[in-house]
Specification:
Length: 338
């Protein structure tokens, strides 16, 4: 299953199905009054349905199952599909009743450990090293697992304003698909990316500011898990520069914020409003303005990721500079940046 028609179906079909399913999910959430009520850490002011991630994941996972089956690699994708389903179940319980950090974190660890077998080379020494031989195999897989676990959580942390997580997921999926196609990698990888992008875009039509519903942990956690796997596969295929550049804004905002809170002695596991994108909305920018800035940066990062196919790591400083410039811009009051 490859070629322009398959790519168009993966993207266009994902958009349409996700839009339809998210609308049905919204009706259910309203009927059951499953709402996110504003508090002192919220970026919204009225109760809003939470759980729209069902529409995203009920589009993405069947699409991935079909892609895996038609690509003759159903067993390779099985741990990822199973891990995402498990994370959806745990995250939905957290959305509805609230779970402590321990069960959530244990479920994420289990999903990541199981998912390591779906990386190129699996869990046995050989090819498919994420860090390209800089580390022995056991350390390569250990560091990859820790990074994957961090990506799952940071994607959840960054789902804090209308349109941001959906826009980032669409950027990562589409960007990864383009890079994989240009590099001549397994066509299934591009299809996985476009299916994820389509699912995110369909949801984004409902989640753009002012959002009619929120993704919730049921969407952000398994979405971070599946996108994290795609990025690790890209890195293990030798394109580690592109794998760093495509999600660079989310990586930078979440990591810098965590390190700053650690340095200030704060409890990093507690919810807060200290991310750069949150500060930007507090200082006068609308949700849509912030997301547009992030999407513009993502487009620049994608161009650099494409350039890295020919130039290698030398494009990394330009990517880092672009990310830092946006973080500085988001930290300034809107009137001073105008």
């Amino acid at each position: 299953m490859s070629g322009p028609l398959a790519l168009a179906l993966a993207l266009g079909g994902g958009v349409a199905l996700s839009w339809l399913l998210t609308g049905r999910v919204l009706a259910y959430l309203r009927r059951k009054a499953i709402l996110d009520h504003p508090n002192d850490r919220s970026s919204h002011s009225i109760p809003t349905p939470r759980g729209g991630g069902w529409g995203v994941m009920l589009t993405l996972l069947p699409a991935w199952a079909i892609i895996a089956a038609t690509a003759d690699e159903p067993l390779r994708a099985l741990p990822i599909l199973a891990g995402a389903v498990a994370l959806m179940a745990v995250s939905w319980m957290d959305d509805r009743r609230g779970l402590g950090p321990a069960p959530r974190f244990l479920a994420q660890i289990a999903a990541v450990v199981a998912g390591l077998s779906a990386l190129p080379g699996g869990v046995l020494p050989g090819e498919g090293l994420v860090f390209q031989g800089l580390l022995p195999f056991w350390a390569d897989r250990l560091v990859a697992a820790v990074g994957w676990l961090w990506f799952v959580n940071l994607f959840n942390f960054m789902d804090g304003i209308d349109g941001l997580a959906g826009g980032e997921a669409a950027s990562i999926g589409a960007g990864l698909a383009l890079v994989a196609a240009l590099a001549g990698l397994d066509p299934a990888l591009a299809l996985y990316g476009l299916a994820a992008a389509g699912a995110a875009l369909g949801f984004l039509m409902w989640n753009w500011h002012p959002a009619k519903l929120f993704m919730g942990d049921v969407g952000s956690v398994p979405l971070g898990y599946t996108l994290g796997w795609l990025l690790l596969v890209l890195a293990a295929s030798g394109l580690w520069v592109a794998a760093l550049l495509i999600p660079a804004y989310f990586l930078a905002d979440a990591t810098f914020t965590l390190l700053r809170r650690l340095a200030e002695g704060k409890k990093v596991w507690q919810a807060h409003r200290e991310h750069f994108y949150q500060k930007a909305t507090q200082r006068g920018r609308s949700h849509a303005q912030v997301v547009r800035l992030v999407l513009a940066l993502n487009a620049a990062l994608l161009l650099l990721a494409v350039a890295s196919l020919a130039l290698g790591w030398v494009v990394l400083p330009a990517g880092a500079a672009a990310v830092v410039l946006l973080l500085v811009l988001l930290a300034r009051p809107a009137r001073a940046a105008a």
